[in-house]
Specification:
73% of the residues lie in helices and 0% in strands. By secondary structure, it is mostly helical. Pfam families: COX4_pro_2 (PF07835).
Amino acid sequence: MAEHKHGSMDIREHEKTFAGFIKLSIWTAGISIGVLIFLALVNA
């Protein structure tokens, strides 16, 4: 088994995936808030 060297792993793909997840989460939250505001205004 090879010796582990801290910080030597390439994590570019992990960072891109996490950034995409955060972007999707922000869009989902924004759309959900927009839908809730729309529903509140329509039912008023």
